[in-house]
Amino acid sequence: MDRFKLAVLFLGPTVMIAAGLQGMHSVPLTFVLFYGWLLVVPLGSFVLRRRTGARAHPQVQTERKRQKTDILLGIGSGAVFFGAIVAAAVWFHPLFLDIPRLKGLLQEWHFSGEHTIGLVLVLLVLNPLLEETYWRGYVLRKLTDSKVRPAMAVFLTSLFYSLYHVLSIVPIFERPWNIVLVLPVFAAGLFWGWMRLRHASLTGSVLSHSFADAGIMCVYFLYLS
User: What is the pTM of this model?
Assistant: First the structure.
């Protein structure tokens, strides 16, 4: 794959987050830019392939055979992520959350008041679906189809998936935890990439991701709403 196109795929989501969050200081606008990118890029590629007559990836039968195991792994791992996130917050939140400062930051980003329910629904439903489709579906397949070794493809997608989380994690958490907490995001990306390669399906990683996001939202309602 052309290096410039690859750089655009890797960095596009981060640029959208930076423009919306750091540039416009608005979570709703950030969501529009970010999720618009995650939706339009794979969808545009799909439409282009259909118009040029390119064949679909031959894995439908494999997906059906592995789907049950994939779903169970997604639910099980997601439950573990949910429990770990909530437990870590309950036990350690005085170390990494300055709650008064963070409430002010969320108000500045318009993640409060009347916007909250809509934003939470986006995070629980749209976020895991589009992030997994983009990173573990579209970009990961682009890399493996370009003869990048599967392990390296998973590493690269996880690395750049983690990159834009830095833009939201660093302002939210106290130092040095704001840097340390990027590592679980990277580890989750590696795990979901492995799930995608092993089961040839996005169902499990989407479910697992949804549970993890639900854990984050649970922390929000416990301490910040």
Answer: 0.89
